[in-house]
Amino acid sequence: MQNFTKYLKTKANIAEPEFQLLIKKVEFRNIEKGEVLLRPGEVCRHSFFIENGLLRSYTVDDAGKEHIIQFGSENWIVSDRSSAFFNEPSDLFIDAIEDTEVVLISSDFINEASEISSSFRNYNQIALQNHIRHQQKRINLLLSASAERRYMNFIKLYPDLTLRVPQWMIASYLGITPESLSRVRKELAHKNFKPN
Amino acid sequence: MQNFTKYLKTKANIAEPEFQLLIKKVEFRNIEKGEVLLRPGEVCRHSFFIENGLLRSYTVDDAGKEHIIQFGSENWIVSDRSSAFFNEPSDLFIDAIEDTEVVLISSDFINEASEISSSFRNYNQIALQNHIRHQQKRINLLLSASAERRYMNFIKLYPDLTLRVPQWMIASYLGITPESLSRVRKELAHKNFKPN
User: Do A132 and B132 touch (CB under 8 A)?
Assistant: First the structure.
């Protein structure tokens, strides 16, 4: 829980007495690679803060093809915010790409932390706005960017994931074919581009 | 200002005394068709609540092609929330597709209304979460849906726009070619599908 502690104390600026109260209200869980945390039709009851490991959220279309909405590694939060907030069935799967240690954050926790601490409230507000910013950029990339620009953006957003995630999943996230991704990677290698 | 009044009083549940205070703090403006309200590189200082008319936000790629991020007609708010919240340069254009009457909502207004009224604060929180929900659905559609499903979704989201917006703009919003949109519309007509 080292990362989650740092998240609450440093990023959300929660002081020690409030921290002691709040830390009792979260749950820690070890998730095995391949384990499914959320299925379409279920209401998303938690946000998953990732201590160690790697989760993804994705949809499956009528033809059975997976489309990756989000990756989350250390210090990321993976969730279906809409399902959790509006208490409505999710469209998403969430599962583990690696063995993963998560902190389960409930809506109750967020409400309580927001009541106790104005700095948490501010931090949560910034996190929401950041989510909107990130989604807006993603929409723009999906509408307008070449496969190369999408991949370059992926590397910038997720610098630690290019070697941890199978290529087909990266292609799925980018909305391009695995063949396009392979071509882009070859061209970048040819230009001596170093992602890591 | 009939729509904006309804928005504050009914939707955000602002009582008369607070309403009288707040209504003084917004600005009304008539925008001519084609007028540009925001350009890339500028910080977005306002959200535009649409009383009457039609705005759009869009990006222009390196080849000069426009990609429409959002349409907004009566009772919608068009903005670059990220630019406004983080006080950073926008990537977007916002302009008027029709002569439009807007209410200019500043960050100061939102902060003040949130302080005065807990129901406004709640409403604003729901609006943020709605925005996230809408963007998430859009990302999923762009990643996984056929041209027909994208168009059907457009009609559902913007039922009054199919006749007000040029076809090429709808295709741009959907991330499909005008030819694909034309084909989809013909197929739907053939199936006797009535959008309006």
Answer: yes
The domain ranges of chain A are 2-117
CATH architecture of B2-144: Sandwich (2.60)
Task: Give A184 to chain B, closest Cα distance, Å.
Answer: 19
SS (H, E, C) B83-116: HHHHCCECCCEEEECCCEEEEEEEHHHHHHHHHH
CB A129 to CB B85 under 8 A? yes
Q: Confirm if A91 and A97 have CB atoms less than 8 A apart.
A: no
Q: Quick one: how many helices (H) and strands (E) in chain A?
A: 8, 8
Which pLDDT tens digits describe chain A residue by residue (196 residues)? 799 999 999 989 899 999 999 999 999 999 999 999 999 999 999 999 999 999 999 999 989 999 999 999 999 999 999 999 999 999 999 999 999 999 999 989 999 999 989 899 899 989 999 999 999 999 999 999 999 999 999 999 999 999 999 999 999 999 999 999 999 999 998 887 765 5
**Which residue in B86, B133, B139 is closest to A69 by CB distance?**
B139
Specify whether domain A2-117 bears CATH 2.60.120.10. Answer: yes
> Measured between beta carbons, which residues in chain A are less than 8 angstroms from residue B132?
81-82, 128, 131-132, 135
Residue with tokens 């979460």: B129
Distance between A9 CA and the closest CA of chain B, angstroms:
23
